Each structure stands twice: as structure tokens, then as C-alpha cells.
């Protein structure tokens, strides 16, 4: 299962140009004003091999915010902070089949805890579990962890996106108060949401995301230093969730069509990885009807088929 | 359809004593600490006839808070403030079959507006529609309206209950933010909830509630002064809702077994009325599994059968 | 609360002609081929006063099938056959807020029995409770009961509609097997559905339905003979359900706008009544989005307002 | 990722004996009488390596019926019969988070097609797509396919279980009629269910199931003959579904704790596989609350951890 990087570097620019066309069939997220400004036709990707080689194409330098991609990293941090048992007392392990911000199962399925940490309800609970004396401290810890995985101090909070999230995210407030009422969320709502909004607003590039993916592909070990940044067990948990729930309620289809661990965000970003081999960062702001980068999913499908990436 | 008040005044004390026993099968609401202090076996009732005659029995002097009974009065006030069209743009006319604080239909049934004004979601929206420059002003207008219908300046905010509600009502916050996200609630959440919590915390006695019921039984006309306090059309709307949705998701059964317009509250209070004839105020803090005063419902059934009150 | 029949007989023809226009905003039911043939613009009504006076207008002679209107009569018959306790062990008393053929609450709300006898699930269970050794015998008993209430041997099974129902009613089969699995339906599915399809296919005219409504308005007593055809208690139960659940999930709005017991069918028929006074039969095949005769509902609203019929 | 078969064959008998104890925490399925007779404490397993080596322990010879495990094979056969496009026009690719026989999403999520082929609704549709002029022919084709994958003519219909299924499966009838009404199921209900009940009633042993799993682990190629029994693409699809939806609504947890493609049945059977390496057949009739063999899941977790099987 080795990817031919020579072939890849030759062909990738052409593929990216060709696949921009898919953007026309999707639409940029508009739920917060800042996201609506993203260039509809942008498409960029970086692949970072364990050997150190990287290949980029298209708008790989376009900065974007992590949004839901951040849920993977707060899950890892919460597991490291609190341990597996404490985290899974508060959040389940199952895909839902519902949209990412659904509240149905919180009301319908006892004991009313979120089904998994990659839907909004679950991610909010996970953020509440992070160690830190204040929302600022928790947010800074997330940012430091992201920078550490990225091997780069570039990632930073985009204050405009953060404020935009915080002002408009009434559905997330609704989720959080429901969780509070269900006694799943122990912390106060607004400080918890403050952490959550900040983690969503961490701005990154494809190269940084690819490097983070590579650490996961490498079972949590920094490929440059050989240092374990995340215990292997927790990386396994994260990768499992990425396969079963990483691409919203199109995760099953993505497992069939692409077959690698991935997590998307409403910014059009995607974190993906080929275990043991490489990490991927991708940006393509136009989304399909499930909320995933439309051109991005098509491009990953092409790459997975050509280089035989699927786990299955 | 005339109630024999002589017979009633003779028998009522005995019935009330006998029906206290039902309290043992129910339980006092515990969701806010203040309500949990209510005396489990209390049962009191006042009936106020259009002629001016009143009959009371049991713990009719026990003060209690309106809780959901207040939803009838804020509905009337909103209709008077804004008119029928404006109110029903924001809230529907249908019973739900779900529990009073359910969010299912807000997510499942487009356009996500509350099904009726007597479930929590609907009542919160109704409160947001009241005229007034501040939560304080709105709350004072509700209180004045309640006093006017009661013909008594006794009703007042119970500050302990109000604070208790405000501190613990996370499910209501969740509902309100969901409504905000659905663009059904135009006002800010916390000021709206402040009005809502205050209206729930208006403390009354059976006599006051019976007098309010009498005004509705009298098509909105103050029986003492002959002055129209509420337009007849709006009273009709309120009575219709009381029949189809007034007793939580036991309204259908109550329509069959008792057959008169009524609205219950989690304090164990019930407002009821026999159209054209009399108003009823009742308190019995022990609730059945649907949230209605368990002894109260049994007592009203007895009275309805004996005096042939059912509309049906 | 007396209706001026002189005024009514003068004005009714003009109103009916004017209200035909509403048909353009609705549509004839198409779920079974036979219903789709109904004349879109038809509108007919008969009112039958307790005194014996009747007034008809428009297409009052157009035959139509009872469809869901039959649910009122099988409920009455089941109550007379089995008693209140046996019936309500199998079916609830609450409106649902869901569409008439919904299965959600059967799965979501334990113990999975239908919420009320006027939704399909409930009506199927009610039909299963009727006495009779075979579907034929049960069906004949229903027909006889309908004829008795109509005071007319005219009502008969429309065999084409019956066959059409039986062939296409897969959603009803699905409901029935679900009920069977929930152990709410004790009888076999197909014989039970055979009874149900037949009762829906009883063909009537407005005059016959008006006469049936009059018996209910008269508390179960045949106004011609003075004989009690249905115990008053069961009539009360039926009228309560007609108010809370009779017009599908527009029952709440109908209670506010019209305020009388009524039951509609997908044929565009409506049975209604003014307690103590008169019965109404109406046909208007074009339906609104809730499944009720669109012109019919508007006409009943007009009549209720003019003659002050509302119970509320 | 190679399993040490010497270590395995030494330790497996001891592990199986020790893990029988888990059966006490679960319960044998009782929904059909035949399943209720299974021995509660039984536990058996066979592992079949690509090299030809097999290891068995415990009650590996206990015959059991495939039940839901058959869904994997009818999916493969339908893909081979009809192609990917035709199959996925009728059934989706997403996990649901609901119980295996839930109907909620059929009503709530348009266009009302089953979310995936491993829940009952999806499997019924898949069975309807199989080529064959009669239920008998379709059933025989399934059986031949199972025997071919098992490399053994042993698998056969258990007629008692088949009749037991057919008589009691009202929930499946309900599902099928719902699908028929949604126009997702084109075939008649009873013949389709006949195929479905027969496939569930195919009786096998651990060795046979392990051999079937091995063919999937070997990308569809018979390891003995080198012949492609199933196209690799379809095997990939099946393996993806086994990971995302194979263990009912505990699939997410199984992905984390065990991390290999697997499918369980209500008989307590499990089909599992380690891609590229080996197939597993397991029987342990006592089920956990999600419907999976309770001892079986624990045993697979132990094996996966010891031999590092997880894909993640």
C-alpha cells in the first residue's frame, strides 16, 4: 500500500484544476457571515508522506478554519486529559444517521448523552471535559496541541470567525442547554461554548492539516522527532470515529467510496490520512448537501482508487 | 346546565377530604426546589358562580404559583396586544401528543414553529410577543392583567420560585435557543425567559383563579362590572386550546372524562370553567404521571358527572 | 343557540355556489384510483334539525364513501360491543399532532398502542374489536348500524372503492402488522383490514350523514322514534374525539374556527353536528393539505360564525 | 499483521472456557421459539487462515442459523446480480444509530429508503432484488452461494427455524409493507419475505462461516482454487458496511474495541475477518443488550488486542 509520489506530483495539479468544476454543483456555507466569503471555486490539497516528502496543488495556501475538524483534536486531548472511561461516560461511540446538529436522539434515546464525539452535541461535551481553569486556558491548550501536531506555530484563532460563531450559534446553545438539563454537561454553557467556538475558529493551511494527519497516520508519533505526541490507543479511537462518523451523515458512503479515516468541516476543509503512510489536508469551500467539500470528496475518491488507499 | 350550589356547598367538604387520598398515588413536582416543598396531601378548591356565589373547601387558601396556567393569560394578552394574525404566524393551533417540553416537532415538522401556545415552546414565543419595553414592563403588564381578571390585587410574584425557575430551567433555555435558531423567536432569549419565569411564579389562591375562570366562562366580561376585559373572540380561542391542549398530553382523556376547558400547572393548580356559568380554582400539589393534579382531576371528574358539566 | 332555518334555507344555495371556488386551491385524493374520479368542484351539504326540518344545497345528492368518517361509527359500535374498558385497553384518548397514518408514536411511545381511535392505527384496532364471527358478519353489522343511524337503507358498500382500497393500502397493512407485533392487535391482519376497508367504502349521501349526525347531536336518541340507538355516554366519548382529533392534524384549528364536533374523510365528506340541535352531512372532494374538504371547512366556518354554533 | 497460529491454538481453548462466563450477563434471543432453545452457555469459534490452517475451540460444531449474517451474502449476490447502481437506488450507505428493526427513518427521512443493507428494512429490499423466477429459486441461489463461499455443501435450510420465522415475523411484514407503500420494494411482500426468512434460516457451523469470512478476507478469491467468487469491489463494499453497520447499533463501539469487519446474527453467530489474513466463525447464543453475542464480542476483543488485528 504505497503511494507513488512521483506519479502523484505530476498529476495532482491537473486533477485539482479539473475537479474545481464540481464546486458549481455545491455551495459555500452561509450560516455564519465569515464563511460565506470563501471563494466558491477554490480547491487545494497537500499530502505529507511519512518520509517527509510533501506534494501540494491548487489553493493549498488558502487559510481556512478547522470548524468540525477540530473535534478530532479535542477528542484526543480530552482522552489524554481525562482518560477513556471519563470521556465515554459522557459521550457514546455510535454513528447516528442524523444531521450533525440534530437533537432527536438526545430526547428519544435514554440516557440522553450524545451518540459520538464528532456530532456537535458530543463535541460540546468533549470540550467541557478539557483541563484548564478558564475558557482561555482551555482554548490555549487546544491551540498548542494543534500547533504541536502541525509542527508549526502558524495555526491561530481567527477572531472574526470566532465572533461570528459566537453571535449566531443559537442551535449550539440549544444543544448545550439540553445537555446541561440532561446532566451530561457539567460545566456552564457559555464558557463551554466559548471553548467550542474558539476551537472551530482555529485557522490553518493544507500543509498544517496534512502534517496533523500524518501524526495520526503514524500512530501518534511525530515523524520528525520520533516523540509520541498521542498514545496509540487514542489515535486508534480517533481513526475509528473518523471512519464511522467523520464525514457527517455521508460517512458510510465515504467509507465505501474512499475508505480512509477523514474528518470534514463546514469551511470545506478535510483532514484525512492513509494509516502508516501519509496525511492529507484539503480545502474546497463549496459543500455538497451533506456538508462536505464537494470537489474534495471527489478528489479523494480519485486518489484512493488510483493509489489503492482503502482500508477495506 | 345549572349547578346546584346548595348541594355543592353541602357535599364539597366531604368530597375534598375523601379525595385527598389520591395524593398518595402521585408525587409533588421536584424539578425546582421551591415546588418540592408543597404539602403532598393538600387539596383545595373554590367555585365562583356568575351570580356571585362562591363555594370553597379544603386548602383553598393555600397559595400556589400559576406555572403553566399563566400560559392562558399571556396568550390572551398577546392576542390583545398583537392580534390573531401576528400571534398565529409564530405559533400553531394543534395538540401535539408529546410531553410539554418536547423539542421533537420543532426539529421534525417544518417550519419549526411550536404546535400550540400551551406547550412550553409555544408559551415562550407568546411571551416574547407581549408589548413592553423591558422584561420588567412586560411582567408587570401580565401581573396587572391577572389581577384585573382576579378582581383582586392579591396575586404577586413569588420571588423565591422565580429565582428557582430561572436558575434551573435549562430545558426551557434549550427550547428558546432552538426557537431563536428557527427564527420563530425574534426577541433575545434571556429577557424573554425572564418574562416567562416571572409569569410562572405569580402566586395566587383558589378564589383568585376561580374568579379568573369566571371571566372566561362569562365570555370575557367582568361579572361584577359588566365591563369587557377580553374580547369574546379571544376567549373562545383560549377555551378551545384549553379543551384540546390544556391538560398536557392527557387533554384528550380529560375532554372525555370531564369535558370542560381547563389548564393545569406543575404546582398542582388547575384553572377550569363551565361556560356561561362558573369558574374554578383548584390546588392539589401531588401530580399524576402526566403532570396534572391527581386528586384534582378525580375531583373535577366527580363534579362534572354530578352536575353534568361536559360540553360534549 | 338556535339556528334560523328560514335564513339558512334562503342563503345556503348562494353560499355553496360561492364557496365552490375554494376547490381550486385544493386537490382530490388520488391515493386510490376510485377517489381520483370525484368531481373536483363539487360541493353539497344537508342540515337536519331535531325538529325534522332539513335544508340541502349544491351537490347534496352526490354519493360518496365514508372513509375515515366511518371511524366514529365503528368506535361507537365497539364501545357497545365490548364496553369502555376493553376498548381503551387497546387504544388511547389523545390527539397526536402527527399525520393520520403515522407510525412514529407506535415505535416511540410505550406501550405502542394507538393514541386515539380516529387515526388509522386506532381505527384498525377498533375494527378488530367488533363482535362477529367473520369479516363479513362484522362488516354487515357496521352497515346495519350506519343504516340505523341514517334512518335509511340507502347506505351500501361501494365494491369498486372497496377493492381499490384493499389492493393499494400497503401503509395500512404496515400499520396493522406493527400493531400485531406490539400485541395490540389480537385478530389476524387481513380479516381485520377487510373489515376496515369495507367500512371505509360505505357509500352515503349528505342527507344520510346529516341524519347520523343528528342522532349524535340528540345524545344517541333517534329523533323520530325516541329510541336510544347509542348510550349517551358513548356519544359523549365520540363527540369528544371528534373535537380533539376529528379533522386530522387540523383539529385544533377547526376547534377554534368552527368549534363543533366533526369528522372528515379523504373522500371529501364531513360529518358534523351542533349538539342538541342538528346534524350535518357535507361533501366537497377537493382537499386541503391536511386532508379535509377545503370548501367544506370554509363553509362550516361561515355557518358556525353566522349561527353561533361554537361550543367554546 | 500476522497472527501467530501456534500461540493461538495453544491458548484458544482456555480463553473460550474462561469467556463462557460472560453468557451469564446476557440472554438467548426469544423472539422465535426455535432460537430460545439454544444453549445459553455455548461458545465456539473457528479461525481459518489463508494458508489453510484452521483452529477451533469450544462448541465450534454447534450448528446455528445465519440470521442477520445472511444479509452480507444477499448483498453480495444482489450486487453481482444487478450491479451497484441498481442496488443503491433502493438502499442507502449510512449507519442509522437506531435499532435494527426501526421504522423511524423510513417515515422521517425522505425518500423513505432504508439507510443501509444490514438493517432489516434494507436486507428485505436487497432480497427482493435477487434474480430468480420464484422465491424457491432465489432461496436456492442464496444457499448455493453460501455453500460456494463455505467450500462445503453442509449449509442447509433449517425448516423449523424457517417456519418459526415466517409465523412470527410481523414486524418484518410491517417493514415490508411500509417499503412497498414507499415504492422502494417493487416485488410482492410475502414472496420477498419468504426469501428473507429462508436466508435467515440457513444452518451453518463455525468452520463454514470462517471459510466464508476467509473468502472475503481474500478479496473474493477462493483461497483453495484461486478462483474469484466475488468481484473485489463488491467485497470492499461489504467489508465497509460490516465496519460501519455490522454489529447493529454497537458497530461504532466494535470498530473501536475490535476494529475488524464483522456481522452478527440474533442466533449468537458472528462472521468476522482480518483482511488479507483469516476468516472467523463464532457462535455464542447469549446476547448483550444490543443483540450481539456477549461472550463472542469479548473474545474477539481479546484476540484483536493480542494479535493486533484492528484496521485502525
From TrEMBL, chains A, B, C, D:
Pfam families documented for this protein: Glutaminase (PF04960)
Membrane spanning residue stretches: none
Enzyme's top EC category: hydrolase
Record: residues binding substrate: 68, 120, 165, 172, 196, 248, 266
GO molecular function: glutaminase activity
Keyword check for Hydrolase: yes
Catalyzed reactions per annotation: L-glutamine + H2O = L-glutamate + NH4(+)
Alphabetical keyword list: Acetylation, Hydrolase
EC number(s) per entry: 3.5.1.2
Any Gene Ontology biological process: L-glutamine catabolic process
Subunit structure, as described in the record: Homotetramer.
Protein family (similarity comment): Belongs to the glutaminase family.
HAMAP family in alphabetical order: Glutaminase
Protein name: Glutaminase
Native organism: Paenibacillus flagellatus
Amino acid at each position: 500500500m504505497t503511494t507513488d509520489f512521483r506519479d502523484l506530483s505530476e498529476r495532482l495539479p491537473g486533477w485539482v484544476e479539473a475537479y474545481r468544476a464540481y464546486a458549481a454543483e455545491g455551495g459555500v456555507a452561509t450560516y455564519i457571515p465569515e464563511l460565506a466569503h470563501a471563494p466558491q471555486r477554490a480547491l487545494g490539497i497537500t499530502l505529507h508522506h511519512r518520509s517527509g516528502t510533501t506534494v501540494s496543488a491548487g489553493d493549498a495556501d488558502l487559510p481556512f478554519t478547522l470548524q468540525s475538524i477540530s473535534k478530532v483534536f479535542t477528542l484526543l486531548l480530552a482522552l489524554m486529559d481525562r482518560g477513556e472511561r471519563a470521556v465515554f461516560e459522557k459521550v457514546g461511540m455510535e454513528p447516528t444517521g442524523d444531521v450533525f446538529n440534530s437533537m432527536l436522539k438526545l430526547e428519544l434515546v435514554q440516557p440522553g448523552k450524545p451518540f459520538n464525539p464528532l456530532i456537535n452535541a458530543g463535541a460540546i461535551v468533549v470540550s467541557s471535559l478539557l483541563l484548564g481553569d478558564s475558557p482561555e486556558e482551555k482554548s490555549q491548550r487546544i491551540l498548542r496541541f494543534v500547533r504541536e501536531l502541525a509542527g508549526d506555530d502558524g495555526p491561530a484563532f481567527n477572531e472574526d470567525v470566532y465572533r461570528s460563531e459566537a453571535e449566531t450559534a443559537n442551535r449550539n446553545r440549544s444543544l448545550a442547554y439540553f445537555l446541561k438539563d440532561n446532566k451530561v454537561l457539567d460545566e456552564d454553557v457559555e464558557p463551554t461554548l466559548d471553548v467550542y467556538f474558539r476551537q472551530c475558529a482555529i485557522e490553518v493551511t493544507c500543509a498544517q492539516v496534512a502534517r496533523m494527519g500524518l501524526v495520526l497516520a503514524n500512530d501518534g508519533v511525530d515523524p520528525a522527532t520520533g516523540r509520541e505526541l498521542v498514545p496509540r490507543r487514542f489515535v486508534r479511537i480517533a481513526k475509528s470515529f473518523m471512519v464511522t462518523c467523520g464525514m457527517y451523515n455521508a460517512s458510510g458512503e465515504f467509507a465505501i467510496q474512499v475508505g480512509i479515516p477523514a474528518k470534514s468541516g463546514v469551511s470545506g476543509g478535510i483532514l484525512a490520512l492513509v494509516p502508516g503512510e501519509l496525511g492529507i489536508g484539503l480545502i474546497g469551500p463549496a459543500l455538497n448537501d451533506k456538508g462536505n467539500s464537494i470537489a474534495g470528496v471527489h478528489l479523494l475518491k480519485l486518489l484512493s482508487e488510483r493509489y489503492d488507499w482503502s482500508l477495506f
